[in-house]
């Protein structure tokens, strides 16, 4: 078995940072009415700025594959070019197309040579799943390097025009033309961007991160879906697929909007994440006191203190001065968020050889979690 190192990290955040006051001007007002939920959601999530692949005139500037490719290009130098890539492993919540795969579309933009491809679906853990594929490939000797990515283009899902037909339908039914909170909530939470890692079997440069281990956990066997798109949840908790709706219903009921069951999120996301973290640390015999940096992907600062308390209840006391987060500056970028945190810390000049990083990534879609442990080399 071979050691695996993150030797370079890159990112791409499109256009200029968007402030809280600018969001609705870009995404648009549903039913020409300012959102009542926006200020409440933003006050709780603590996000001050984010990035959209839409300019301030409303023009779409990048698709998901383009964002990913631009992040990958940050990995190249005179010692590693696009023609040296052996494996491309890409994770995202929503690819540009149902098929071809996201990785195939990104590879098409690279214009290099034939490589092995992997596309990981899911939501926030899609990026970690893509990373694990690359990690296992190098660890087993299948390849000597891998480019792994996490990326999102959520903004176009949240444009007001995507909800207009539902509002019109509600008016026809003489109901209040107000979009359900489970649909509007995520309009003020999600943003766009991409991160990329170069994985190799030897360290390179001033700072490399050795991946000691990666663990993943799913609780879909006991919990219903919490975050979903391309369908809707029925009263019995099952999801009805977009394929089982008529084309007219796709628009009338905003079937393709991203939805969140906030009650389920609040009830389970922290406890299952803390359980998973403790299980992973115990399995590998890691003492939490050895952790120098905790990088938790949280969708909202509302959960940060509660996550600390939840970990503490399980005997894991990692003080908040060891936490590294950039949520307030870049927003919640789903599967790219952990890449953006690692990239920023890795290139900050703060890391010292021998320090340990613990990554925790929750995915609320049907409660999946990824935990990883890194050593600075």
Write the layout of secondary structure elements.
Elements: E1 5-12, E2 18-19, H1 23-27, H2 38-45, E3 49-50, H3 64-72, E4 87-92, H4 102-110, E5 116-120, H5 126-140, E6 145-152, H6 164-172, H7 181-184, E7 193-200, E8 209-218, E9 227-228, E10 231-233, E11 239-241, H8 247-252, E12 259-260, H9 262-283, E13 293-296, H10 304-313, H11 327-330, H12 337-346, E14 356-363, E15 368-376
Parallel strand pairs: 4-5, 4-6, 13-14
Antiparallel strand pairs: 1-7, 1-8, 2-3, 6-7, 8-15, 9-12, 10-11, 14-15
Mind explaining what this structure looks like?
The chain is α+β, with helices and mostly antiparallel strands. It has two domains: 205 residues, Peroxisomal Thiolase, Chain A, domain 1 (3-Layer(aba) Sandwich); 164 residues, 3-Layer(aba) Sandwich (Peroxisomal Thiolase, Chain A, domain 1), CATH 3.40.47. The protein has twelve helices and 15 strands. A hairpin with a 4-residue loop joins strand 14 and strand 15. Helix 3 packs across helix 4 and helix 9 crosses helix 10. The longest helix has 22 residues.
